[in-house]
Amino acid sequence: MWIACSSSYDTASMSSSFVFFILLIIMKRNTHCYLELMEVKDRSSTLLEYGEPPWIFKGSALYQLHLVKAETARAFIPKDCRLVEAFGYTLGGFFLASYDDSPAGIFDELVVIAGLVWNPPTSCAWAARVLVGSDEACLHGRKVVGLPSQVARFSKKITALPQSPKSKSSSFLSTIGLRASSSNYRNHMDIEVTEIKNQTAMSICNINFNATVSQQDCKGWMGPFIKMSLPNFSGRTKYNSNLLKYSCQIECRVRAVKPAKVSGPSALDADKENSSEDQRSNVESAPTGTKRNFSISVMLSKPILALEFNHLKMRVEAPTTVTACSQNTI
């Protein structure tokens, strides 16, 4: 009698354990589904706030191209993508924009471009870091476009400088938008970019450049009107693991200007030449501070060309998912 009761008790205990195990599986599955649903809702709400693509941005920008060491750029590029390089360098730089009309309103943006990734028959830029003066723009960049976006503060200071007289030759070059001489300049612009994370401010860089008369009163010649397309790769971040591709269709007045002077934290200036060995591993697995330093290293690389975009209208298409980068090299 005791044996029979014990057997019945064991059977009931096993049944209860089995039911409890099934309930755990269901709860875990429902929790996973709930988290996926929340992620979809979060992405949908971000899309709703920004509106339907294409997204239009209007304002002005400085597009500066740098020679970036290939080993530095590779720290940001996924291993299955091929860097466009020659003699140990790739073409990177930065895109410093001030938007007075955008889906996120008025804000400033600094896109640090690590280099170019091969995408036959052309190439795509890869952003090392995107600093924006808008929480909404940061969230949209992370979730939807797959960008390494961070919120930042842009502190601007303009200093008036005496304007030297123009020569006949400089006047002609300025007219066709090819003169980058300081004889055209009246004001000196100083922009300090500070990254904000968890209520902590971290200095990224200081950008110094000359503001032209045309930027101030719009009476000078701003260069020819052009249309151009800037294709980009993005993704492979903790916010968006997919490899994405999107394009920026740009219409603007463009002219060559004197390259901006970029300075970074003094500690980084001293150490940037000693960090090449550490840069060979992918940046996404590196600490946040290390990734930030790599980005500053790109900003501090050698400038070769600076273009000023006025009356800028940038049309950004929705990103598309791609399977893999090309394995070809040039």
From TrEMBL:
SUPFAM superfamilies per record: Acetoacetate decarboxylase-like
Lineage: superkingdom: Eukaryota
InterPro entries linked: ADC_dom_sf, NDX1-like
Residue ranges with Basic and acidic residues bias: 269-281
Annotated stretches, region: Disordered: 263-289
Protein name: Protein NEOXANTHIN-DEFICIENT 1
Organism, scientific name: Datura stramonium
Lineage of origin: Eukaryota, Viridiplantae, Streptophyta, Embryophyta, Tracheophyta
